[in-house]
Specification:
The chain is of the alpha/beta class. Helix content is 24%, strand content 20%. The termini are far apart.
Length: 95
């Protein structure tokens, strides 16, 4: 797996990351077992960057990733997380 550095001083991660948003929300029904299997397959393929957000499924995404990572070494894994994002117009001040 090719790698790349995030920014000038950031971590070196796999050039391909796994976006996990659809595993918890936004695109319709989800399948917990299939999502965990997808995360496992990505890790086994050398992907070290998992993209999540604390608002994906209102925390469900992080719980799902935690479950998928149980028992796996985390020293070479990077979690990209978006924080404080708004999900409704009212939270954006009516924008």
């Amino acid at each position: 797996m090719d790698t790349t550095r995030l920014g000038v001083t950031g971590p070196t991660v796999s050039a391909i990351g796994l976006g996990c948003m659809g595993m918890s929300d936004f695109y319709g029904p989800t399948d917990r077992s299939e999502s965990i299997a997808t995360i496992h397959a990505a890790l086994d393929a050398g992907i070290t960057l998992l993209d999540t957000g604390d608002f994906y499924g209102m925390g469900h995404n992080e719980m799902l990733i935690r479950e998928a990572l149980a028992g796996r070494p985390r020293d070479k894994l990077d979690l990209g997380q978006i924080r404080r994002a708004a999900r409704s117009r009212s939270k954006l001040g009516g924008l």
